[in-house]
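Re: How this chain folds, sequence and tokenised backbone to follow

Filed under: protein folding, tokenised backbone structure, sequence and structure records.

Contents: The amino acid chain and a row of whole-number tokens, matched residue for residue.

Body of memo: The sequence and its backbone structure tokens, given next.
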Amino acid sequence: MNLRCNKGFTLIECIVGLAVFAVIVAAAMNLYRFGYRLYLLSETEVELEQNIRIAAGRIVNQIRALDNPSAEVSIKNNQLMVGPYKYYTDDDSLLEYKDKRANELAVYIERFEPVIKDGMLSLTIEARKNSGSKHECVTVSLFIDSLQ
């Protein structure tokens, strides 16, 4: 009489199956973490670029709303004066100042450089979230003499 029954798995087969499953799960988790890191990095870059584009757009809109832009736009100490508004950086933020109130337009700003030359305003805004991230830079040029 044969007492051995061949139903089920041996202990060795269970351990090997569990090891294969663990390797597959570990590979899937690493792939997920890598994808998530890429997502966070791209989200940060998009947020920075969007941040500085909105700030540049706001400044451009304020300039276009002026009656006489060539007379009402000026630069003093790296601060852009646009009619009653003043734009400048302070503690890595781009600020809009009017009526004794400051409004933060953008954060993580490394460089804000307005230049007026030959009737043209060139505005460069550069941002970077941390030392390991990519620079995001927006440059806008406007002929302020021709906006009248």
Remarks:
- Residues 11-147 form one domain.
- The longest strand covers residues 109-117.
- The two ends are 108 Å apart (CA to CA).
